[in-house]
Amino acid sequence: MGENREPLPAILGGTPAVTLDQEEANRWPLLTREDEQAVLEILRDGRLSIHPVIRELEEDYARFTGMDYALAHNNGTAALLAAFFALDLEPGDEILVPSATFWASALPMLWVGAVPVFCESEADRLGLDPADMEKKITERTRAIVVVHLWGLPSRMTEIYEVAKKNNLKIIEDASHTHGAMWRDRPCGTLGDIGVFSLQGDKLAPAGEGGIFLCRDYEYYERAVLLGDITRIIELETPARRFAATSFGIKTRIAPMSAALARIQLKHLPEHNRRRNNNLIYLSEKLEELGFHTFMAPSHIKRVYFEYIIRFNPDRIPLSLPVLLKALQMEGCQVSMPRYPLVHQQPFFTEGHFQSILRLPGNVPVPEYAPDTLHSTMVGNQHLVKLPSFPNAEKELLDQYVAAFERVIRHGVEIMNSSAALEADSESTPSAGEDKGG
Ligand SMILES: Cc1ncc(COP(=O)(O)O)c(C=O)c1O
What we know:
- This protein is an alpha/beta fold.
- The chain has a domain at about 35-265: 3-Layer(aba) Sandwich (Aspartate Aminotransferase, domain 2).
- It contains 15 helices and 12 strands.
- The strands form 3 sheets. Strands 1-9-8-5-4-2-3 form a 7-stranded mixed beta sheet, with helices on both faces. Strands 7-6-10 form a 3-stranded antiparallel beta sheet, with no helix packed on it.
- α2 (about 50-65) runs parallel beside α8 (about 255-265) and α9 runs parallel beside α13.
- It starts with about 30 loop residues before the first helix and ends in an 11-residue tail after the last helix.
């Protein structure tokens, strides 16, 4: 009789809170006729392998970041390999790198004989933990790979201090941070060498592609030598003599990808604005509900490659598997984040890395134990991934908020239900499947 009853969560028999279509809202990349036209032009032109559009893309990235040299690659992994090669390391030199990242931040270094030394990630920004970095420095440490995970710039002030004190080079893997700024400086320019992936999920995608950036001509020249014979021919230094071979691989981007990358970079500011507006709106509401949403401090302009929040078990009366299940039943697309910790992978723990990293006899073989990096492991167990809503309207976000509210309000009831028992026993949370980068 006119009783205003709170809607029950779907897991307790209610109707789901999220009813709007999510396909368009979460569609990515956002491609228009302009993208089609740019690719078609290359196709009709017929120069499918070597085309001026590659140089134009490099100029765009040099201008966008302010870096002196840009070299386009066929993917971000190749651009990272070029970055490690550029440093001209000795076999057994060590590089500090997070374990909480996509594998390509670390693995290419093995091909130039460098040893990844995995460090903890800190809880505020999910990037390298400067205190742990200090502990891992040895006389062989030469460089640091900084990864701004999910779009949030790392603790650069402290990282710079560690780098300066120990004379370490910085490779900045900016694959998640197209358009982000740290103290008014663009990500991609914060290291000695910067790398962007242009893989299809990224904020300025090319399908497949990568950009290598630096200020130092020597680094640029070594990157050219590694994998781009068309550029070696153009060198005006004695290094031109390698034009008939390169240093053994081929990393040039395809012109159709470069053409797409140019259009996507052009529209990056408006695409980022849309994600940011949506996710800041959502974050403010989820903070009120007891989640930590990694909002950026004032000296940082973050972007959202992916939208990750932290669940606080002290503030939310549900276990993570039950929370995820209850939200999924409301229609929310939530999961655990998708990168498993790199140091725990069989490639390292079973010793397979040695088939690539052939260290000289006087250098000890590193050991990788899966039970190390405890705080990163624990921190990872409380992360939740939501869609990044690149194309969503506020109504859908409000439905998500309603779903979260409903589930949390009935948290105790849900935890006492048989559905919760099932969810808890079915799933041990683990990182999701990694699609492509
Ligand atoms: C942090 C990070 N680094 C490097 C890469 C490698 O880039 P690509 O997939 O373009 O080779 C990716 C993603 O793909 C990434 O997420």
